[in-house]
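Task: sequence design from structure.
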């Protein structure tokens, strides 16, 4: 996790003191800030981060799979969830798929590291070969590719980037073309939740598949394996369990994000105001969709910056059994709640 990759934090606390925190100094504050919301405990002025050896290659699976009936789509979702349990719940695989709102379609956007195209294809073959053998039920378009990892962040060697061509823009600025639909977005609804490994095992797999199917009737559903930690490398798992992340996330095999939005709408800009009726409909649709998945994933939990802004049980949902300790540390270093964020540690004791 990102939290476990922080080795040291210099922070200005509410009493005006500059404190150096790490596992040896101010260790309680260091623990709280790695997963408990850094801005909740003070102003971070400096960080030291852990680096890692660079992978050799970066792979990408793109394309789509379309099911030609509701029953076929439910089966597709179940088979994909089973593939996660068997093969994709590992450090080599990341990102995932998008279940398109209102359609029986999965858009593929899955990454893999240090693996040849043939090796990646072999892992997906049990799913893709079965689907391709049934053209009456499925249309499959799956494309595997790899490149040197060092080229992944070079915009001159990537087709999937949009360069910042504004007059005066710093040289080399760009963003990923896949995020272009989020530019100027007015979000009607947004939620995220972890998928426990037990929810994609045995009979529970079909239960979750049905829930995701129902969710896609009213919301886009993005499922990613890299935002879950049950399949991480043992060395990384040891580091992560030293943070204040919700312990429930260590049992998650995937993370689902749901959202709905309208692009190029801005509150207070004449001619571009969002339609509140549309926004309300999107909000209701996302909430309805998440209700299905929540019922199928007991104990899934979430992250404070990825979950439901209106979550009523945010203390347990975002931090689980770690919340009482986080609250004690908050009261020690910021007893008057100088630092306040919505649904941050201690926010229930102040209106901001």
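Answer:
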């Amino acid at each position: 996790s990102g939290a476990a990759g922080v080795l040291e934090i210099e922070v200005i606390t509410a009493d005006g003191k500059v404190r150096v925190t790490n596992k040896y100094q101010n260790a309680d504050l260091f623990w709280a800030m790695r997963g408990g919301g850094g801005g909740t405990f003070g102003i971070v002025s400096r960080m030291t981060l852990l680096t890692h050896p660079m992978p050799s290659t970066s792979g990408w699976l793109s394309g789509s799979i379309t099911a030609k009936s509701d029953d076929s789509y439910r089966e597709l979702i179940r088979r994909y969830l089973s593939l996660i349990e068997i093969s994709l719940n590992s450090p080599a695989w990341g990102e995932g798929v998008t279940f398109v709102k209102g359609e029986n379609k999965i858009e593929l956007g899955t990454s893999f590291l240090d693996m040849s195209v043939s090796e990646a294809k072999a892992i997906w073959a049990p799913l893709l070969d079965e689907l391709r053998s049934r053209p009456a039920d499925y249309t499959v378009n799956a494309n595997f590719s790899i490149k040197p990892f060092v080229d992944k962040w070079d915009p001159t060697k990537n087709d999937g980037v949009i360069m910042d061509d504004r007059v005066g823009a710093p040289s080399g600025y760009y963003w990923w073309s896949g995020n272009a639909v989020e530019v100027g977005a007015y979000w009607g609804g947004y939620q995220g939740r972890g998928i426990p490994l037990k929810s994609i095992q045995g009979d529970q797999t079909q239960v979750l598949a049905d829930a995701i199917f129902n969710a896609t009737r009213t919301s886009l559903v993005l499922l990613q394996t890299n935002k879950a930690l049950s399949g991480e490398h043992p060395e990384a798992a040891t580091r992560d369990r030293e943070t204040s992340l919700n312990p429930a996330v260590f049992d998650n095999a995937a993370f689902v994000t749901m959202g709905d939005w309208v692009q190029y709408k801005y509150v207070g800009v004449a001619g571009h105001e969002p339609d509140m009726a549309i926004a309300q409909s999107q909000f209701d649709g996302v909430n309805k969709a998440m209700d299905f998945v929540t019922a199928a994933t007991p104990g899934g939990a979430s992250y404070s910056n990825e979950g439901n802004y209106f979550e009523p049980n945010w203390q347990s949902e975002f931090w689980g059994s770690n919340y009482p300790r986080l609250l004690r540390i908050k009261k020690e270093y910021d007893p008057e709640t100088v630092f306040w964020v919505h649904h941050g540690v201690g926010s229930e004791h102040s209106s901001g």
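Residues 121 and 297 are 30 Å apart (CA to CA).
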